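Figure 2 data, in text form.
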Amino acid sequence: MEEVEKAVQLTGSHNSWRSTCINLIASENVMSPLAWRLYNCDFEHRYAEGMPGKRFYQGLEYLDEVELLAIDMAKRLFRAEYADLRPVSGSLAILAILSAFAKPGDPYVAPSVPAGAHISQAEFGAAGIRGLETHHLVLDEKEMTLDAEKCKKVIRDARPKLINAGGTVLLFPHPLEELREAADEVGSILTYDASHVLGLIAGGEFQDPLREGAEVVGASHHKTFPGPQGALIFGSNPDHYRKIKSKIFPGLVSNHHLHRLPALVVTLAEMLEFGREYAAQGVKNSRALAQALYERGFDVLCEHKGFTSSHQVIVDVAGVGGGTWVAETLEKADIILNKNLLPWDDVSRSREPSGIRIGIQEMTRFGMKEKEMETIAELIERAVIKKEDPAAVGADVREFRQDYSRIKYCYDATNFKYEFNVI
């Protein structure tokens, strides 16, 4: 059919294009070749409800073993007492946590979206769907992290059932010990959205939420953690997990996209072996890129703190065209990043924000280091500050990417025999 041919063509065009771009979306990453190979397996066609060994469907003997492997490895990697891999997205993981610990009408505290919260943490996202009364943690705009004392006051005044730290713009660790102190005073549960920094946590960078006071961690596992798209929830309190488990199934997830589980096992193993090196290089790269952009005249946030402690760099581009213009111009030059609200932007400005958000985790995965961050900054400067023809910049981007086409920090797929007979 014509439509099938068109879909095949478009998919091939996308694959070719993105393999020659500089990909700087902070919420994306790529799986290793071995993980990708296992992702395309017969599990994709099958259905599972419930927990391993206690399914409502038959024919899952091998899947159960794979899921148990993944659960055990996640517990080991994050030093947790439990890990549930069934949420199929970070937003569903957050909604499961919200549903477990708060009922409609209960007070709830999280950062605002301009202050770095993911939309799932917001009143117009999962928190709103749950019907919670949302109050906002206070961001120190200069320091680009939560203001501990002001947040403690918000918590004491609101007396929430649930506090959700972490988020989608996360340059520096959140003060979890101080938040936990206030949470204990009012009998609140402190949770943490680790979606963006899960790989940094696995690699011993950034912060360690469970050891610093968070009681439950929810996260997608496809950002700094370079796995298949999906999510997990982990923690150390069995009583909490009993509440969460029933919200996942039968509440929010029926079948949990089984083909991602063997790919997730591979990624967990790779993070256990290579995660520290990968995470450390990622933080070095983000700082190097931030410094290089700053030296070229960009208004990079938090210069006085070394710009960032995570994989992210946040730039105020209001003076050079605004977030939308910069992101669209760079896309024409095959540099892919996203426009982003800054803390002082009103949420109504989401389509015309002041900032851009940059993430270096994917380019780090392809072997780029500090020297390459200088090149990326120069290419961005040419398109945005010097306003060179984006097509000319894009040609240089594609030439530059030719030397960075092999994924690092992973197993060699040729060392593993894998055969799959397609029916």
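Caption note: The domain at 34-269 is CATH 3.40.640.10 (Aspartate Aminotransferase; domain 2).
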